[in-house]
Amino acid sequence: MQKPYVFITRKLPDETLVELNQIAEVKMWPHEEEAVPRDVLLAEARKADGLLTMLSDNFDAELLQQASSLKVVANLAVGYDNIDIKTASNLGITVCNTPDVLTDSTADLAFSLILATARRIVESANYVKEGKWNSWGPLLLAGADVHHKTIGIVGMGRIGEAVARRAKGFDMKILYHNRNRKPEAEVSLNAEYKDFHELLKQSDFVVSLAPLTAETKGMFNREAFQSMKESAIFINVGRGAAVDESALIEALQNKTIAGAGLDVFEKEPIDPKHSLLMMKQVVALPHIGSASVETRMKMAELACRNIVNILNGKEPETPVT
């Protein structure tokens, strides 16, 4: 009996594929930092029973409709806005993601961005490496305190709550905005629900963790940044498209806000000549929210288990559809 065929769109460690290799013929794109070209992706999708995909891969209606044998798409991410969920559902294709396993790693990264931006860590490290440190001064590279400040979390899902737990350790006042109130978090974390613009007005650090939806796309626009304190720092570890980058650039240039820590962007990878990368008050990272070795291994293993379960006629662990 012929084994089902599975295509993986980025190079993964061999040890995460053991179970999948036992039940399927597996082909893997051999590059870690290079996306699969569209024509290759279309060709592979046409013959695949399963696909293990990245958030940067575009699985639109055109591709899915040509994938006549496809049973499962396992996305190596919490998000899945790169996949046309409606078309997949109509075609009977199961879509899975990898929630939970990356919650704490992403929350660590979000809080790292808060600290790095507020305390000018990257700027200070470069200052030393570039040989500019000739003497000590009372306000040399002085940043802003994080402890006892107010954090406003937009998107109070698992990661949002994990960020709030870390903020609690810094004695921060915790505000949040979410589609739905989170009564348990309000009690356990002493978090206060706020209207979006009220949260922006009161927060010293605004952290975007909202999923990308029609409502959240471009929600951080000129009006949003103008609602924030001049001393406020904006952190985005959610979705790049939630931010109007031209409005963010304007806010930083005009000192409407003090700084930004960004792990995601409207277009990735970001152009090295992008205006945001020219600003000292911006800490920019290459979308590494969940990028610890332990977490990425767990994500890959979960994605593989989801494919194995579907191909074996069982229920996946983390289905989206």
From TrEMBL:
InterPro entries given for it? D-isomer_2-hydroxyacid_DH, D-isomer_2_OHA_DH_cat_dom, D-isomer_DH_CS1, D-isomer_DH_NAD-bd, NAD(P)-bd_dom_sf
Q: Name the residues that span the membrane.
A: none
Q: What PROSITE patterns would the database entry show?
A: D_2_HYDROXYACID_DH_1
Q: Which CDD domains match?
A: GDH
D-isomer specific 2-hydroxyacid dehydrogenase NAD-binding domain: residues covered: 111-289
Keyword Transferase carried by entry: no
Per UniProt, the keywords (alphabetical) are: Oxidoreductase
Extract the Pfam families matched here: 2-Hacid_dh, 2-Hacid_dh_C
Keyword Zinc among UniProt keywords? no
Q: What would you give as a GO molecular function for this chain, any one?
A: hydroxypyruvate reductase [NAD(P)H] activity
Provide the Gene Ontology terms for cellular component: cytosol
Domain D-isomer specific 2-hydroxyacid dehydrogenase catalytic: start-end pairs: 6-320
Say which family it is in: Belongs to the D-isomer specific 2-hydroxyacid dehydrogenase family.
What protein name does the entry list?
A: D-glycerate dehydrogenase
Q: What is the lineage of its organism?
A: Bacteria, Bacillati, Bacillota, Bacilli, Bacillales
